[in-house]
Amino acid sequence: MAASAAPAGVDADAVAFLASKFPDVSVDVIQVIVGLHGSNVMAAHEELAANHGSPTRTEKKHSRGRHRKAKSKSKAKSKRSSGHSARRAEREAEKRKLERKLAAHLASGRPESEFRASLEAECVSRLIDVGNTSEIVMIHPPRPGLKLLVLDMDYTLFDHLSEGDVRAMKRPYLDEFLAAVYKHYDLAVWSQTHWRRLEAILTALGVLTSPLYRLSFVVDARAMTRVSLAGDDGAMAVHEVKDLHLIWGKFP
To answer: What span, in angstroms and rounded, lies between the C-alpha atoms of 150 and 134?
Structure first.
């Protein structure tokens, strides 16, 4: 596959080299991975091999039995479930910690409003830190004069709770919808999943390689921020949020 011009900040030689090693992977995907690894060819090669297999391994995939595929899908589903459970457990642990802090704060005779203000200031600080440290790697540069439409992946591009092949879970008329809005908006995807799964699903859906529309960039869970809030009833809530100021700050 011939490499197209790499976006600014992405090593074109690295992209061309990896494209020759992984001809079945789209150049757009390779550009994103090279950008995420700061043009570190070794790290990008390892991620591509982990996701797509070496050329030799790719050829052997076609000879594997159906039971191997079913086992792989079951393992991937179990891993995703385990990851969601781990994050949920982390949020619950932080929630209990905050409840203990609030109880100690009130026991000391200080007002609850002071605790709320401190919690809000901490959340704002986290959002600023994530905004300052997160990097957005461009796949296709923004087009002059167009606004940006940011889409989620789960529930929006495909029904991730259904069983079966990812392509079978693709939302009806997804390509037609994206092609229609692409005439008026630049497109981006921001998902709470991590890059390996995100890239694999977008590739399977054909979203990264469609000739009808192009994504400007893709953002994964690393750019999300965990925030803690106290409800009106005093109950603590811990959420992971997508702060769109991160994008607006980089692309005003």
So the answer is: 17
Mean of the per-residue pLDDT values for the chain?
Answer: 78
Q: What is the DSSP code string of 88-132?
A: HHHHHHHHHHHHHHHHHHHHTT--HHHHHHHHHHHHHHHHHHHHH
- Residue appearing with tokens 């002071």: 114
Contact between residue 228 and residue 121 where contact means Cβ atoms under 8 Å apart: no
**Residue type present at position 12:** A
Asked which of 66-70, 151-155, 187-191, 198-202 is least confident by mean pLDDT, the reply is 66-70
148 touches 252 (CB < 8 A): no
> Over the stretch 210-223, which tens digit does the pLDDT of each residue have?
999 999 999 998 88
Helix (H) or strand (E) holding 168: none
Q: How far apart are CA 170 and CA 207, in angstroms?
A: 10
Q: In whole angstroms, what is the distance from residue 225 CA to residue 243 CA?
A: 7
| Cα distance between residue 29 and residue 50, in whole Å | 14
Instruction: Please report the pLDDT score of residue 176 as a whole number.
Output: 96
Q: Indicate the Cα dihedral angle 209, 154, 90, 74, nearest 10°.
A: -80
Whether the predicted pLDDT of 35 surpasses 60? yes
Strands 147-151 and 185-190: parallel
Which residue from 205, 217, 194 is spatially nearest to 87, judged by alpha carbons? 194
For residue 229, give the H/E element and its range: strand 225-230
